Amino acid sequence: MAKKICNIQFDTLTDIGVENDTVTLKGFDSSSDTLHFQEKKCRIPLNPASSDCIVLRRQDRQPFICGKFFPLSDRYRNSYACLGRWILSKRGEDLILTPLCRTEHIRMEGKLLMEYLRIHGKIEIRGIKVRIFYYLFYQKKRRNRKKPLLIFSDRMDKAGDNGEAMFRYVQRYHKEEAECFFAVDPSSESGRQLSRIGRVIEPGGKEYKKLYWQGAVMVSSQAEDWIFRPYKGGTEAYKDLAYGTKFVFLQHGITKDDLSDWLNRANKNIGLLVTATRMEQDSFISGNYGYTDEQVKLTGFPRYDRLYSRPQKKITILLTWRYYLVELPDEKGKRMVKNNYYESTYHQMLKYLVGSPEFAAMAAGYGYTLQIMLHPCMEDIRESLQKEAAPGVVFLSYDQSYAGIFSESDLIITDYSSVAFDFAYLRKPVIYYQQDRDEFFGGMHMYRQGYYDYEEDGFGEVVTGREQLYDTVESYLQNQCTLKDRYRKRIDYTFPWNDHKNCRRVYREIMRQITGKDSHAL
Q: Residue 522 — pLDDT band, cuts 50, 70, 90?
C-alpha cells in the first residue's frame, strides 16, 4: 500500500470532513491565545479508487491533540473512526487514513474493545455496552432514517423558552415532515402540558439516548453538555460514534456579553446558532468564537412569535443570577447559594427592591403592583427573601410563563439580563439597576463585557443607586409607563424582524442544516 504524507501546521484537531476526493481537517493552535478559537483548514486530495494510505503529520513531528469533538480520542491507542469510505486511526504521532473494508473495520473494533477490557474502568465498561448496542440496534436505523428526528428542549424541569416555541410550531405545521420529541421532566407542569400536543421524554433518559444514537438533532435553548453528550463522563469511549451529532442552539437570551470562553466552537461545536439582532450575529462571527456565517443565522427568536401585550399595571423585577454566589448544580440542576451570599451587593439590591416599604408604597400609590421573578439559578433564596419582603410585593412562581409576565407588565427593572430584549420587543420601558457593575464584569461572573453598551445601546435608563432608581421608576409611573422616543428608535433599529415568522425562519435553517435543502415552511 503506497503512502502519501501530508504535513499539517496546527496542533489541535476539532473537525474532519471526508468526501470522495478530499479530506478537510479543521483545528487551531492551542499555544496561541490569539488563534485559540480561530479555525484553520487543510484540504488534502484523495484518490478513492486507489489503495493509498494517507499519513497526516504535524510539521513539528509532535502528536496531534484530538479536540473535544474530534472523532478520535487521545485516551486510547486503538481509537479509530469510519469516515465514508475511509478509516481514520492513530499510529504513533501520526493519523492514518486507509480505505474502508468490512474485515478491517471488524479488526479495528476488536482491538479497541480489547483495549477497553484491559483498562476495565467505568468509562470503558460503559463504552463496550454502548458500542455493542449501537452496532446491533441503532446503526441501521440511523442510516435508513427517512425523515429528520428532532429533540427539542429548554431547561430540564421547565419549558417556556425557544425550545417550546419551536416544538409547538413543528407539531402544528410540519408534523408529517419531521419526527419530534420534547425533553423535559414528564412530571413537571411543562411536561404535563406538552404531552398533550406531542411526545415528552426524560432529559438524558433511556429514550433520549436511544434517539440520540438514531441520529437525532438536538435543538435547545440551553447549551449544557448533557444535551449533545447524554452519557456523563463516557464520551471518550465513543467519540467516533457520536461524531456528526448535530446541535442547534436556539439561545436562552440575546448574547450581548462576551461568552467566547464557554460557547466557542472547540467547547460546544454548534452546528446552527440562532440570533435575533444584527450586532449579536456580528459578534459571534467576528468575535473569538470560531463560527462563520455558515453556522450563525439572523432569524429572530422563536419565542418572540408568542409575545403579546396586555398590561395590567405591574412592575416586574427580573435580575439575572451571579455565578460566583452559587454552588455548582446538583444532579437535578439545582443550585444552592454560597455562605457569602447574604453579604453580597446582589443581595442588598434584591433586599431593597422587595423589602423597602417606601419603594413598595410609591408603586402602590400610583396603582401599580410590585412583583419579582427570581432567576432559576437563584431559587434557593426565595424563602428567606420572602420573609424580608414589604407588604404587597408578589413573588411569581418558577412555573409561571415569561411570555405572560411580559404581557401583563408595564415596566421591568432588570440588571444585565437579556430579558430586557424580550420586553423591549413589545415596545415597553426598561430600567437597568447595576449597583454591582464593577463586580459583575470584574471576572467573577461567567460573562465578560462584550459589544453591548447599556448607556448607548440599552432600552432604558441605567441607574446605580437606590435614590436614582426610586426617582426613575416614579417618573415612569407619572407618565403611565410610556416608552420614550429615543428608546423606541433603538428598539426599532435593534430588531430586524417584527413579523411573527421567526419559527418559520429557524425551521428552514434547521432543515437546510440536515438536508442541504429548504423546507416547505408555511
A: very low
